[in-house]
Specification:
By secondary structure, the chain is an alpha/beta fold. It folds into two domains: about 5-95 and about 175-280, Metal-dependent hydrolases (TIM Barrel), CATH 3.20.20; about 95-165, DNA polymerase, domain 1. Helix content is about 45%, strand content about 15%. The two termini are about 20 Å apart.
């Protein structure tokens, strides 16, 4: 199969604003050959995406994005591709994370309401935001409520004005546990947007080599944080280490200027990445 793909999409089941079916319909309209639904710490939308993909002849890869702690680094993101998303142990672990995320979201709403009170504005109701979430309540859903009430002009303004200053720390998977889980489920572990860890290449090289020793199998070379030089460097790194490289827009539906399939406009990820992931899984 030929054509372009997008291996990093988010739905309402984590912090995106489109349902899995809507994402599939968008991908079909764009003429993509394959996509991966990679919600944060959630797999609840995958079956819906798979069914919608079959209806329009779009290949959908089951995926998952885990928020990981590694040494001094927090919020390192690991993508697990082609894993068994129906595994009971995985579902139980993710439910625990989802419950904690719900409590985190409630705490964020409480802090936002404190800020709104100081501003002389009426509070928001977390249940309004929960209605927008297909799965776990996330910050984009809270932002949508703030925009709807006229407290922010757009999603970005809602984050700058309320979500970022009222944030509450979230829990992370230990990196060895995350890599072992992906491996146990028959998946392929890929480091998402590596330069989000650090822009210092010598430090990033050390981090990625340490992750490789723990079982990392690939890097997301094309994403919305990397420039062309970063992407070329990551592809070269993958080649030298015998890793797979992938790419994706990290589309949530809220970022200004980011489009499915092309990211900020120039991303073009070939279907050969899917073939290589399948070889690694086999």
């Amino acid at each position: 199969m030929n054509g372009l793909i997008d291996l990093h999409l988010h739905s309402t089941f984590s912090d995106g604003v489109r349902t899995p079916s809507e994402l599939v319909a968008m991908a079909c309209k764009l003429g993509l050959s394959a996509i991966a639904l990679a919600d944060h710490d959630a797999v609840d939308g995958i079956d819906e995406a798979l069914e919608a993909g079959r209806a329009c002849n779009l290949e959908v890869l089951p995926a998952l994005e885990l928020s990981v702690a590694f040494g001094p680094y927090r919020d390192v993101h690991l993508l697990g591709y082609l894993l068994d998303h129906r595994d009971p142990e995985l579902l139980a672990t993710l439910k625990e994370f989802r419950d904690k995320r719900e409590r985190r979201s409630e705490a964020i709403v409480d802090k936002i309401n404190e800020k709104l009170s100081v501003e002389g504005r009426a509070p928001i109701d977390s249940q309004e935001a929960a209605k927008l979430a297909g799965g776990a309540l996330g910050r984009p859903h809270i932002a949508q409520v703030l925009v709807a009430k006229g407290y922010a002009t757009n999603m970005q303004d809602a984050f700058v004005r309320y979500l970022i200053p009222c944030d509450v720390p979230k829990r992370y998977f230990p990196v060895d546990e995350a890599l072992a889980t992906i491996r146990r489920l028959g998946g392929v572990a890929v480091l998402a947007h590596p330069t989000s860890i650090t822009q210092e290449r010598s430090t990033l090289l050390q981090v990625m080599d340490q992750l490789c020793a723990l079982g990392l199998q690939g890097v997301e070379a094309y994403n919305n944080i990397c420039n062309d030089q970063d992407s070329a460097w990551l592809v070269n790194f993958a080649g030298k280490r015998g890793l797979v490289w992938t790419g994706g827009s990290d589309y949530h539906g809220i970022e200004e200027g980011i489009m499915m399939g092309t990211g900020r406009g120039s991303m073009a990820v070939p279907y050969s990445c899917v073939e290589e992931l399948k070889r690694r899984r086999a």
